[in-house]
Amino acid sequence: MWRNALEPYQQQGRDEDTDRVQRQLDELDNPSGASDGLHDR
């Protein structure tokens, strides 16, 4: 779900920003497993 929203940023080469945003979204979506990083449920 979030990956589609972040795709344009990845195409622009903003991997660091995308990674930071994705981590924040993971914390919101799954506080107990945020350390997992980029995982899909």
Question: How large is the radius of gyration?
Answer: 10 Å
- Overall outline: elongated
Give the end-to-end Cα distance, rounded to a whole number of Å.
10 Å
Strand content: under 5%
User: Biggest β-sheet: count, sense, barrel?
Assistant: none
**How many helices does DSSP assign?**
2
Mean pLDDT: 68
Work out the number of β strands: 0
Structural class based on helices, strands and sheet pairing: mainly alpha
Query: Poorly predicted ranges (pLDDT <50, ≥5 residues)?
Result: none
Give me the strand/helix succession. HH
Q: Percent of residues in helical segments? A: 55-70%
Quick synopsis:
This protein is mainly alpha-helical.
Defining key terms:
41 residues, mainly alpha, 61% helix
Molecular structure report:
There is one protein chain. The protein has 41 residues and is mainly α. The protein has helices spanning 2-11, 15-29. Helix 1 packs antiparallel against helix 2 (15-29). The radius of gyration is 10 Å and the shape is elongated. Residues 1-41 are annotated as: Disordered. Residues 13-26 have a biased composition (Basic and acidic residues).
